[in-house]
Design brief:
single chain; mainly alpha; 434 Repressor (Amino-terminal Domain); 2 domains; two-stranded antiparallel sheet; 53% helix; elongated; disordered N terminus
Length: 166
């Protein structure tokens, strides 16, 4: 069995002025993904291989606070058998779901109508270009941060927006 070699920490000169670095606070997505990896005893590299993405991309989620593309987020949720709401910290319940490509635009349009908004008004309220709506209507999926903003603004779940909860 191979053991990882422990690298000793650098010693700091106590007389040298050092900027205090506060510990990095992980966002809820990072915390949940770390817990899921630990639960399955998986490394970031192993997950990258499973998802067929680079380890640099996975490390970006942890080190730089990036959100995954929605297609990758769905793959992660399916692999760990959890919902997007659980993965992004909107729910403590770990229910799984199935995605439906047409479901997002149908649900989003319904939400807009239920709130008595035009598409232009809704997109302006979300601080997004109206052009995005028409791109989504033509089959492109929104970016994850856009989905999160929509869910927060309209107080709906991510799972409701992008799929059917099982």
């Amino acid at each position: 069995m191979a053991y990882l070699k422990c690298i000793p920490q650098k010693r700091f000169d106590v007389n040298k002025k050092v900027d205090i670095i506060l510990p990095y606070k992980m966002n809820k997505f990072q915390e949940t993904l770390k817990e899921l990896l630990d639960e399955k005893c998986l490394s970031r590299l192993a997950l990258a291989k499973i998802l067929n993405i680079s380890s640099t991309t996975i490390n970006g989620y942890f080190n730089d606070g990036y959100y995954p593309d929605i297609k990758i987020a769905v793959k992660i949720a399916k692999y760990f058998d959890c919902s997007l709401d659980y993965l992004f910290g909107f729910s403590d319940q770990r229910k799984n779901f199935e995605t439906n490509k047409n479901k997002f635009i149908n649900n989003f349009t319904t939400i807009i109508k239920e709130n008595n908004l035009s598409i232009a008004q809704a997109m302006k309220a979300l601080n997004m270009s109206e052009y995005n709506y028409y791109r989504w209507k033509n089959g492109l999926f929104p970016r994850t941060n856009n989905l999160i903003e929509i869910a927060k603004y309209f107080n709906v779940s991510l799972d409701f927006l992008v799929g059917d909860v099982k």
